[in-house]
Design brief:
Blueprint lengths: L5 H13 L4 E4 L11 E6 L2 E11 L4 H16 L5 E9 L1
Parallel strand pairs: 3-4
Antiparallel strand pairs: 1-3, 2-3
Helix pairs in contact: 1-2
């Protein structure tokens, strides 16, 4: 993935994952100002997508995980993406 395509890809993942039922909000990956919400790493022929999100406790975690991972892969147009999620619930 080129540097020029990466911002558009991150935006696409953000929009797609935010629309998954049960996903309440995407959080920055670190506490630093301006920290990214989506991190993409392309190494050794593997693309990794990292997300940190809060979920609605009423939606089963399995559904949120499957939905978020699928949405990220579809947004990136690749099924071989490794999706890493950090999840917290909001009650």
């Amino acid at each position: 993935m080129t540097d020029q395509l990466e911002p558009a890809a991150k935006d696409a993942v953000t929009v797609a994952v935010s629309a998954v039922p049960g996903v309440r909000v995407l959080y920055p990956l670190s506490g630093l100002p301006g920290s990214a919400v989506v991190r993409l790493r392309d190494h050794e022929d593997a693309l990794t997508c990292e997300l940190r999100l809060a979920t609605d406790a009423a939606v089963p975690a399995r559904e949120v995980v499957q939905g978020a991972a699928g949405a990220a892969r579809r947004a990136l147009g690749r099924e071989d993406v490794v999706v890493r999620l950090e999840i917290a619930s909001i009650e």
